[in-house]
Amino acid sequence: MNTEDPTSQRLTELEIKASFTEDLLDQLNLVIVRQQGQIDALLHELRQLR
Q1: Cα dihedral sign for 13, 19, 24, 29?
Q2: Dist. CA 27–CA 45, nearest whole Å
Q3: How far is CA 39 from the centre of its chain?
Q4: DSSP output for the chain
Q5: Quick one: pLDDT at residue 2?
Q6: Nearest Cα residue to 40 out of 26, 29, 32, 50
Q7: In the chain, how long is the greatest CA-to-CA distance?
Q8: pLDDT at residue number 4
Q9: How far lies 12's CA from each of 7, 17, 22, 23, 34, in Å?
Q10: For the whole prediction, is pTM greater than 0.85?
Q11: 1-50 pLDDT, tens digit each
């Protein structure tokens, strides 16, 4: 049986969602950094080919 009041339960759920959202944001930032590195390398290669 859940003894938490609805407000406390809702707050806990929001904290969990915020934690997952923060994790996702960190993962997306890593993807962006990796992709920027790839773009930079491709631009460098393009300049070399020209």
Answers
A1: positive
A2: 27
A3: 20
A4: ---S-HHHHHHHHHHHHHHHHHHHHHHHHHHHHHHHHHHHHHHHHHHHH-
A5: 60
A6: 32
A7: 70
A8: 79
A9: 9, 9, 15, 17, 34
A10: no
A11: 567 799 999 999 999 999 999 999 999 999 999 999 999 999 999 999 99
